[in-house]
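ok trying again, last paste got cut off:
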Amino acid sequence: MDRLSTLLTHFGVNAGTFHSGAFCGTTAFDGHQVSGHMHLLKSGEMSLQLGDERDQLLSEPTLMFFPRPYRHRLFATDASDTQLVCASLTFDGGAGNALAMALPDYLVLQLDQIPTLGGTLDWLFNEAFGEVCGREAMMDRLFELLVIQLLRHILTNHQQTPGMMAGLADPRLARSLSLIHDTPSKAWSVAELSAAANMSRASFAERFRSVVGQTPVDYLVSWRISLAQKRLREGKSIALIAEEVGYESPSALARAFRRKIGVSPREWAQGGAPR
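nice, full thing came through this time. structure:
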């Protein structure tokens, strides 16, 4: 069972490196960008302000991960000798897609806390501070690889708040969630999903709601609608989307979409609601 590959097939990440090298002064991100960010402090010191919180001094090599737009500020002085590498991160389907929304607002981790990323970080830093041709393209791909490795780390090493990632981290629920993700067009019943989890229906339903924060049926609908939103962004017709995500007709999809999002698929695609 692969808990991440299907998610990344639907909601892959694209990185764009925009800084590598010495850093001084102030750079602010107002949270209104269309992308998330990853910053890697290789050496030196810098201050990080998250939202309206106080500045925190970073003096060890550190990873700062923002899967969605989030207000934050970076600051360093000339004397700090700060070496920083930064990239924007855009998940397929927009910042409101199921994977991005399942992640915490931010993670700030010292690099020695995430040893499984060590080889990729070394490779990325060698590219960032070298002069080899193709370095920017290589760095973009390495940032994307870092995100995948970080998702693995989140699943295996972090206590989760209720949501999709918590469900995928739960050994008893992960298979049922993966079945929904792999085959959203199937009319999954609680009995089928509980059998996959090797649990009774009542125990499964209770645990699913506690860990994921939704009933299994609500989660199936949410996953289908998230996929529908991605397909609408890609310009697919509602008829084709309805068949792909498990609705018998475009009108059935439209009803489910309106109940979940508040507007019709067509209105949403035309910008009638925040994405």
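cool. The chain has two domains: 5-157, 165-269. The first strand starts at residue 13 and ends at 23.
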